[in-house]
Amino acid sequence: MKKVLTAVVVFFVLGMGSLFAGGGDEAGRSSDGRVAGPITVLTNRTDLVDTLFADYARRFNQIYPDVQVNFEAMTDYSGIVKIRMNTKDYGDVLLIPDGVTPPQLGDFFEPLGPTAEMAKKYLMPTEQAYQGTTYGIPVSVNANGIVYNKRIFREAGITELPNTPEGFLEALEAIKANTDAIPYYTNYASGWALTQWEAHRSSVAGDPDFVNSLAHTDAPFAPGEPHYIVYKLMYDIVARGLAEADPTTTDWESSKARLGNGEIATMVLGSWAIPQIQALADDPSDVGYMPFPYNNNGIVSAASGGDYKLAVNIHSKNKPAALAWLYWFVEESGFAKETGGIPPVVGGEVPESLQAFADLGVNFVSNNPAPAGEEGWVDEIDREGEIGLWEPNFKARIIEAAFGARNETFDQIMADLNEDWKAARAVVTP
Amino acid sequence: MKPIKREVPMLGTASYKVQRRILIGTFLLAPLALLFVFTLLPVLNMFYYSLLEWKGLGDNTRFVGLGNYSRIFSNPEYFSVLTVSLYYLLGTFLQLALALFFATLISYGVRFREFFKGVMFFPFLMNGVAIGFIFLYFYRPDGTLDSFLRLIGAGDAVRYWLRNPGLINISLAATSVWRYMGFNFVIFLGAIQSIPGEIYDAAAIDGANKWQQFLYIIYPSIKRIVQLNLILAINGAISVFEIPYIMTGGNNGSRTFVIQTVETAFKYNKFGLASAMAVVLFFIVLLVTGMQNLFFKKEDQ
Questions:
Q1: Does residue A75 belong to the interface with chain B, where contact is any CB pair within 8 Å?
Q2: Is pTM beyond 0.90 here?
Q3: ipTM score of the complex?
Q4: Looking at beta carbons, which residues of chain B come within 8 Å of A400?
Q5: Taking Cα atoms as reference points, which of B143, B175, B295 lies closest to residue B244?
Q6: Residue B224 to residue B222: CA distance in whole angstroms
Q7: Residues of A171-199 as b/e, b for ≥16 C-beta within 10 angstroms?
Q8: Highest CATH level, class, for A37-140+307-353
Q9: Domain residues of chain A, as ranges?
Q10: Contact criterion met (CB < 8 Å) for B9 and A1
Q11: pLDDT digits (tens, 9 = 90+) for B88-134
């Protein structure tokens, strides 16, 4: 019995010892003052973690040879990391998951510097900031628009890119009449692809303060409002039979190749999707990118914004090494270019895929930070009312109504959303 | 060499009964600790969370008492999704009937019985996500099902299996039947095979046919197992999640109570409300199981 007890005690002591052994170099610097120690980097790019990211680690080690970089990639990134953030163990460098409100940033992430100071060097330092302090830098800046197949547009006889919803529908009608391609592919089954439409509220509004203004309206889904215009187009595409026959069985992975080779003509996606589709296309130059078809007195706007923001865990034991990785990643890695986005540093080169936007004179709109005291209001109303601006739920509902699976009209759905918004706003805002 | 002293202090001097208790207790320690840490503790925590308003991140909880419950019960919308479970409930009866049928058939001895056993049980071994994807291909237009129907000349029966709101839950319930039938089948088969062969021989001498053998020998001997399977299957039907979540994300009218709970927690960050919904589901399952037990007890008398 005693022996057993001793064994158990020894086992636990050894176990605890090995736990602490993992802690590593507390100071994060080796004796000669160099940046050192192991860091864990969390990422959502399961597809790149063993290839591109391994290569980044090699290049990073040429400058910082004493830092061991480990990666952890997860598919449901935000969902998993948010749960892990209830412990102290959520990597050293990570992407700030969705759903962290601005006042919470300081509890979880290392402050990177005053926002005004950061703005001189990096793009979008306001997107994860609170009271003048920035906590995260975007890994890349995306524009939002519609990926289309240029060859199909030519074959359908479309010579000029449409800049009104009606013009876009006519173009899709022409594609349906003159080619074998599916005019628009919803990717309904994936869920997330439907949320790509949400960014275009700012493309339609053309106003960097539009999103903040949502906290001051009871009817953001009323006719004529940007949300109504954006989702009316979605509804019309499906209702007029311009989308795939059965949205419920769509497949994202194969849709990329199908757009590349002309079986599909258009999809609403962020600019991050362009290189992925080009990589699978028969002829990469067939893959084009157009802004959301809407104009304010001739001016076409495109919503743009930071991708996930890279940040450092406030509980990290190797902060110098973690910060070194963060700055190296946004400045030197070339990740943004690789993934078709605009590099997050001031004066970065606009990627070739977005050249068409520059040629069209498209006005890029990025959202302003919420006024002091109103931080997180729009997200809070969205959450409280279970609207899900960035969730697929009501978009799926619109598509279901459009293909006739629901006994409600588009206007009824919009009215219902307004009602929920109004009730939630009454709870959230003073 | 000295013989090894076999006496262990304490244990050796205690009576047999005490020794037995100590041994049983020690062996139970590990599973009980696991049960406590991974089942009881989370459930107790869930009850506690259901009294809070919590966004799932940080310590900013607010005690709201039964506020979450009154929100659920004053909103019939939350329960409307339970009707979706009826499809799975009907599927359950089909599933048990099929499992019992195949188990009986195979127990009578057929050619390649081991092979058929494997085929029947295989779906249960497969990952639920893989099954979701297989059946998405199966149900898509011009997919496996449509091709098969055309092959056998039943092209008229081709439908939009998931797009049609009247069919989607039937299609999903059928997938569920396909997946879980093997599990019931194996349990039934095990129970049937525990019936001694002499009884069949005796029945055969008395001139009983296969149907009579099933009715008067097999069914009474495995009645308990049928009840167990029924309870498991009905509880599964109430808390169905995996298949509709993977295949349709709960869209197009296939949302179930558990999907709704998961969305409340992880999409809208209302962990308190979602915990309360989970507690409500817990009591629904408890209630149904209790009712079934009562029903079977009455039948026994």
A1: no
A2: no
A3: 0.83
A4: 165, 251-253
A5: B175
A6: 5
A7: bbebbbeebebbbbbbbbbbbebbbbbbb
A8: alpha beta
A9: 37-140+307-353
A10: yes
A11: 999 999 999 999 999 999 988 788 888 999 999 999 999 989 999 89
